[in-house]
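Typical record was shown:
=====
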Amino acid sequence: MKLQLDAEVLADFVSALLGPDSEVAVHDLSDPSASLKIIRNGYVSGRSVGAPATDLALSMARECSGKGGEDYRLNYRSKTRGGVSLRSSTLVIKDEAGRAQAMFCVNSDDSRYKRALEAVQALLPAELSHDPHQETLSLGIDDVGVGIMQGVLEQYAIDPARLSGDEKLEVIRELNQRGLFSIRGFVGKASQALEISEPTLYRYLKLCRD
C-alpha cells in the first residue's frame, strides 16, 4: 500500500509524539547544499531550514538508491557541531525508479534519560548476586514449605518415590538444612512425596544429624 503524505503534517506528528528531545528533519536531496526543508525542534542540533545535507545523508543517498537498497537505518550515532552525541534514524524516500529523493530523519538527544538512568543505578547495590533467587516472599507458611520441597525435588529428573536410598538421604539432608521440618505438618508431606514412612524419615534425619 502506498500513501501520499504531507511532510509538514508528518513532521508535526512525529515531533509531538517523541517530545522535545527529538529533532525531526526532512531533506530534499535535489539540492544537497540546502537540502533541509522542514525541521522541528531544531535546537537539538542547532540547525534551521536551508542547512546542507550531512555527509551520511549523501552516502546513504548513493547506497540506498535502487529497488534493492535499504529503505531506512535505525539508531546510529551522530553528533552536533558542538559535540553533543545524538541517536539518529533515517527513512529514505524514493521515487518509482528507486532513486533517493528525500530523507525523513529523527535525531534524539538521550542525555536526560541517561542522567535519569544513572540516578536510578546509583540507588542500586554496586554488586548484585547473579545466583538463582535465594528467597521467595510467600503469603503463608504452607507456601514456604511447598516452595522448599519443590526447590529441592526439582533437582532430580525422576519421580521422588523412585530415588535411591542415598538420594533420599541427600534430599532429607537438604530439606532439613533449609528448615522444612520446623514447619508443622511437613514431616508427613515429605514422607508422602518420597513414599516412605514417617519413622523412616526420622531415621534418615538421625543419620543427617550424626
About this structure: Residues 81 and 142 are 64 Å apart (CA to CA). The mean pLDDT is 89.
